[in-house]
Design goal:
With 190 residues, the protein is mainly α. It is built from ten helices and no strands. It has helices at residues 2-5, 9-31, 34-50, 61-78, 85-88, 99-103, 109-128, 131-142, 147-154, 158-180.
Amino acid sequence: MLQVAKGDRAAFARLFDRHQQRVVRFCHRFVGDAHRAEELAQDVFVKLYRSADRYQQTARFQTFLFRVATNTCLNELRRPGRVAEKVEAAVDDDEAPGALERASTGETPDQVLEAKDVEKALQVALKSMSDRERAAFTMCRFEGMAYRDIADALEATEAAVKSLIHRASLQVLKHLDALKAGDLPAGSAA
């Protein structure tokens, strides 16, 4: 990012190539709409590029990147006129994050169906979380970020992040238990 601040476009291209898919996945899990997630990820990188001259290396780049991504997603969720049903679209089999990765793993049809049901239950759980819980859970469980980095990205304390992740994890367990008990019909965990 320091190279980008000096006008190095090739450095920006490398940053984009390295982090673009992670940002798209994060935005998708956050807003629940694959197409909008692509657009939001583009917005994140535009914001990074435009603010490169103001970037200060006070934390890891990943932390800075996810702070920008979180704020962009929060702004999207708060946007007047946003269609709430878009969040529910995330439980569609073909749009669920990870659907394409599972399709090429050689799993049996039953395993793929079970994985899709778990993914749908997870999407419902994510939708039931507060924005900050969803952000912290997604950064921790799907992006593998450390609590300290998540705290920096959310501008919170590590204790607050642990609490957010704990509450979010309880939501996920609740929805997975409902799936296991048959309270969420197979094929439509909504």
